[in-house]
Amino acid sequence: MKMKLFALIALVPLVVIAHAQDNGFGPRIGLFLPTDSKVRDAFGSNFLNFGFGRARNGVRASTRTDFSVINADRNGNRLFLVPVTLVREYRLMGDMDSATQVYGRLGAGLAYMDYALTSNGTRIADKRLGVNGNAEIGLLLTKRINVFARYDLFNRQEGINFSGFTVGLSYTISRF
User: Which residues are registered as beta bridge partners of 101?
Assistant: First the structure.
């Protein structure tokens, strides 16, 4: 638990500083749907995913950072994934000044992975750095609110694939 808290506290200021270089940032929350049956058996078919992301700024394309946390704890099994990625985002539809825009994102980076679960009677546990790639499509509903669907691809750890879909909502707290 102390390591998780330290990782979270250490990463948040870095992400906020990076976001300040753009025109805003805010929280993201979603429902994570794992694709691997071993992960679903251990934690259920869905659980929360939250994080911070830069706000859409209306430009045609931009590069940004992304930080999220996927956390689950059930029946003695635990999962804590923290992907930190560099993301390239593209406005797909909607004018630059329009409040409603469709966007797409592709990202890649590292992920802190802390997991312990029982699969087929075998206990699997580790804390390590892994690789993360993600793709997202979203709809900016207003200048501050957007809905999104995202797929996170994690490298396989000990025969388990922690990849999955997130359907969520983000809100821009502040604009610079």
Answer: 140
